[in-house]
């Protein structure tokens, strides 16, 4: 059936949604956050294969064991990958330019088998660079407890 | 019959089911069911060749949950297939696990279904199903509350279905109260159920708040966080693992015209929401594949999918277990009780526990558990040779049926 001339087009409606989703972090990540409030970096360790997870995980995916053991790791680690960001996503979802580029690094803490991503306060960065975590135990938001990284020493 | 292979169930695992599992995240919740399933079967992830998984799209705190969870379920380095079909998801996931073994492509397959509803939002999830329709009505000035009342959500669908079923069958509100009491008392014996109400009487159910006639608060399922896992394998491997495996004789699913109420959902020829023709078609097909000739007398147990009280009776009929309109008097006779002739919902049913994406699988899992004799306090008072499991969902138009038994088709 063809559209008739002069008629309003077929209605097309939009309905923005505000999804009220959540994510329960679970007991392992909660223990990690609680540790940083005391200035400690807690990682979970697989009792079967010995792999150390930071951020901690309940299950070792490689050997399907419960990573029930806990170890405290040093703030120091090594950059395994890094990038320089020149834009960021604003709260409304728009992409905006950063005033100055920021370095984001994947850091493997000494003693960990995993990496954790964070902002690296440095003039430049390279793979293999030694860095240390900067904790902010007084942070109101749990995700800000680990403020970022800086060159070690 | 077809050239497909016979399939055995060698393990069933369930997580703890409650309203809100804040102590674990989604992959960790599912891990509980998965590890219980490995333990039940005496298998390890290395013994599993492939995985089928699913939950209700948009009901979880995350979409693509397999991306977050597969490693937690022992699927590291293995094929993972995700299946979602709305309310029937858990049934479809179990069917997927069955197909992977029945096809001969894989020997041992784990099927995993779950829902962590407390992280998601059911209303939002349902909105995403019928959003275009709801949006159109909203723009036309229809009050959103009214849209919810006459179209949105499963309660809106259930009340019309219930009143229609009551008129055609002679089912009374007292029968609805009886169904709730029967299921919640069974649930009290099931360590994995959510709403346990030991000693609940129909009279107590009749005193709960009337939501929308004829459905009272006591006639409606709860919203549950929970997960279910099942291990399927070949009869040869099953015999080495257990003396008493369960066998899946057949699975069948059937879709019908969408029957949501609204602009896009209206205009289908499904004018009677209790007709559920697709359930009858799916049941007949499943029985033919399984070699069931007399469903009324061959089954020892039924697990129909009934989040609302009237549905236990309605689907008992649509599963061809009696004449249409006969189920209320069968309920009166006590035959559906745990110690009855054909026990119905020994698990406590969906009306007691509804982790939506898992619910249709949990019907199949309960049949397997009862056949294997692992029902504990809720084990029915008879040998279970054949059992029928059912799931209902989609745009209220999908039905899935599975037939399980203690011996393979051969």
Low-confidence stretches of chain A: none
Widest beta sheet: strand line-up of chain A: 8-7-6-9-10
Total number of strands of chain B: 11
CATH topology of chain B: Peroxisomal Thiolase, Chain A, domain 1
Average of per-residue pLDDT values of chain A:
92
Helix tally of chain B? 14
pLDDT under 50 segments of chain B (min length 5)? Answer: none
Rounded radius of gyration of chain A (Å): 22 Å
- Give the helix/strand class of chain B: alpha/beta
User: In the CATH hierarchy, what is the architecture of chain B at level 2?
Assistant: 3-Layer(aba) Sandwich
Q: What is the chain-wise order of helices and strands of chain B? A: EHEHEHEHHHHHEEEHEHHEHHHEE
Work out the oligomeric state of the chains in this entry: heterodimer
Instruction: Based on Cα principal axes, name the global outline of chain B.
Output: globular
Mean pLDDT of chain B: 90
Q: What's the structural domain tally of chain A?
A: 1
Level of helix content of chain A? under 10%
> How do the SSEs of chain A run, as a string of H and E?
HEEEEEEEEEE
Proportion in β-strands of chain B: 15-25%
Strand content bin of chain A? 35-45%
What is the CATH H-level superfamily of chain B? Answer: Thiolase/Chalcone synthase
Jot down its keywords.
heterodimer; A: 153 residues; mainly beta; five-stranded antiparallel sheet; three-stranded antiparallel sheet; 1 helix; B: 410 residues; alpha/beta; Peroxisomal Thiolase, Chain A, domain 1; nine-stranded mixed sheet; two-stranded antiparallel sheet; 14 helices; 38% helix
Q: What do these coordinates show?
A:
The complex is a heterodimer of chains A (153) and B (410). Chain A has 153 residues and is mainly β. Chain A is built from one helix and ten strands, in the order H-E-E-E-E-E-E-E-E-E-E. In chain A, the strands form three sheets. Chain A has a five-stranded antiparallel sheet with strand order 8-7-6-9-10, with no helix packed on it. Chain B is α/β, with parallel strands linked by helices. Chain B has one domain (7-120, 226-404): Thiolase/Chalcone synthase (Peroxisomal Thiolase, Chain A, domain 1, 3-Layer(aba) Sandwich). In chain B, the strands form two sheets. A nine-stranded mixed sheet of chain B has the order 3-2-4-7-1-8-11-10-9. In chain B, strands 5-6 form a two-stranded antiparallel sheet. The longest helix of chain B has 18 residues, at 122-139. The radius of gyration of chain B is 20 Å and the shape is globular. The termini of chain B are close together. At the A-B interface, helix 1 of A face helix 1 and helix 4 of B.
